[in-house]
Amino acid sequence: MKKGIRILALAACLCGLLAMGAAAVEAPYSGYTYNYYGKSVPAPLAYVPGDTLYGEDLGVEGGLRDARDLLVSGESIYIADTGHNRVLQLDKNYRLVRTITEVTSPTGKVTALSEPSGVFVKDGLVYIADTKNNRIIAVDEGGRIVRTLKKPNSTLIPKGVDFLPTRVLVDYGDNVYVICSGYYQGFVAYNAADEFTGFYGGNEVQLSVSMLSMQFWKSIFSKEQRESLQRAVPVEYSGAHIVGDFIYTCSKMTQNSTGEIQKLNPLGVNILTPTSSVG
Description:
The protein has four helices and 19 strands. The chain has helices at 2-25, 55-58, 209-220, 223-228; strands spanning 32-34, 40-42, 69-73, 76-81, 86-90, 96-100, 102-104, 110-112, 116-122, 125-130, 135-139, 145-149, 165-170, 176-180, 187-190, 196-200, 237-243, 246-251, 261-264. It starts with a helix and ends in a 15-residue tail after the last strand.
């Protein structure tokens, strides 16, 4: 009898170990941290998804299509449902509260959103990166436009590049920070009077073997040949969020990229190092 109990206990332990192994294999991503030398090393997972929700679960017509941004503000959840040209507002129980598909200008003109890619909320206003309409708008609860930001008329803006905003942030002073596709200099910044004040933040050009090779050829090429070479530009931001005086950013990974997650201070300088704290 005792032998049978020991066998059952051993079997239970083995099952537990196998289950732990299966859970580790099924994790959606691997965990890592940085050591003293700034190198990534394996680490336990700090966060794992608790649930997965689809458009059908939210009760929204047509589900979600190419949703590109999500914001939690107070007890509401906002989703930029880009493929359906709308912004959704849900309550804390994931019930649909409001759908924004059209907005009204101060002159009464009604326009439809076109592939909105970013959303932010401050003081009751919903800021929308209305990408294909080439604008940032802030609308009130009635869908009326209160602020409109468009491509700045400045020599700092790249020539021949459309104004395609993809993310928008607003700080405590109502200054607006915009990520635009093709604008590698950083955030396009506006003050509370909707005036363009320059670029904020921005990634640095990352050194790579191909870049070193390009610099070598530039040293021996003629002016015309150098102008035909591809320029080395920083990686654009792909997402951002603002907390107090700091803006957290993420960038798409490249073969030699570093600093995919940054914490920018009010001067636009990244203060998040491999050994510093995220909070």
